[in-house]
Amino acid sequence: MPIGPWDTSRETPRNGPWGQHEPAQGGGPSPDAAPADPAAPDPATDVMRPPPVRLTRTDFLAAIAANKRNTEILCAVLILIGVVAGGGIGWALPILTGADPAMAIRTGLGAAGFMLVFSLAWTLIATSFGDKMVLGLTGAREVPRAEAPVLHNVVEEMSIAAGLPMPRVAIVETDALNAFATGTRPDHAAIAVTRGLLNRLTRDELQGVVAHEMGHVANNDVLYMTAVGVMVGLIVVVNDLALRSVRFVDTRSGSNRNKNGGLIVVAILVLVAIGLLAPLAARAVQMAVSRQREYLADATSVKLTRNPIGLIGALRKLDRADVRWDNASKAVQHLFIVNPFKKFGESASALMATHPSVEQRIERLQALGA
Question: What pLDDT does 149 receive?
Fold first, then answer.
């Protein structure tokens, strides 16, 4: 029996929890008319109709809470990986150099504490200047209201719905379809969309995308990802130190082998395990955090707009877009609404996928009906 906030086992009543949806123009078909063939062209425009959107019932507030809880757990796991890796190296190195085991334990505890304090301090520094760095890396240009009135109006609507200050509005001059938010505090946030997205999305779809990005601002996602990035970087440095330490021991520690006996072997195994497993585990957690934040922002978009159909339509267009953003910065690829370099299917590797598949996101959005 399905459980959790994404339960899709209950069907939506005829008009759905959002009420009757009318088309943007015209009166639309009568509710009693026979359903049109979704694969047939629209006789008024001779354009193929988009696939129908099927909504089911769930509690999007519970979905938001579940995703936020999962993100916090993953961040805690990542910090734990860093602390354990630092403590393991701090214990192993004194053992390999012939130090007393009691001193090695104290050194290990000190190294673990250093990893924790240094990561928090560096995260604070990085978050102070993160918004300007991201805008510069992506080539985003802040635009006044007179240049992009519709975009400004939509951003203003969503900031009011979220109860947040109006973020800065920026455009990236590329035909690719994408968007991102930056800023570690709501009063220093910015939302940027590409020119291609602005030109090809309807207003409802643009509203869904902007609400998604406003969700990132409201949920402090950029702060989460900055902290995660700092921790992953530190763990990579720790990994390099561990592997270099093994090579150092092979050439310098021959006189210490008899003194500590089996502890030398254990210390070498600890360093090898940290060197091989810590970066893989950290990368997997980083990507899992990235995917959770996208689910969370999707659910927040529905909370702000009360209409999942706009974001569903936008995601379908983004997924079908044939223009790739090849010159985007890989350093911030996890910040975009979809990855600018590649598409991730449902079978994508958890170690490499920065985003959940569009199919999975649409499936969950279709469940956000109550």
Answer: 96
